[in-house]
Sequence to fold (124 residues):
Amino acid sequence: QVQLVESGGGLVQPGGSLRLSCAASGSISSINTMGWYRQAPGKQRELVAAVTSGGTINYADSVKGRFTISRDNAKSTVYLQMNRLKPEDTAVYYCNADLIYYTGSYYRGPVDYWGQGTQVTVSS
Fold:
């Protein structure tokens, strides 16, 4: 009933840029927070950046000044512009949305939804 579809990952050299997109679709009533998490091999999943429906933004210290999160509420889409990428940014990036959706009978939520993940590799 609800899907988060990510795009934009890939291989980039250190210092390069990538832009991730995540579009939410389905019988969505409202979306509260949308954000990006990442998980590197052997590490726990960590928050990269998040933006609330009111526009409050939170970044991990490791990406401040390099990454920019933005959101298009009309399109139920969140973006992550990643600049000055470093090898330590290499990870699978996951989109997350905290939302309320219609089951066909009733509204459910807020519920956490996750995208399938997109690989970002920073290497020369």
In short: The mean pLDDT is 97.
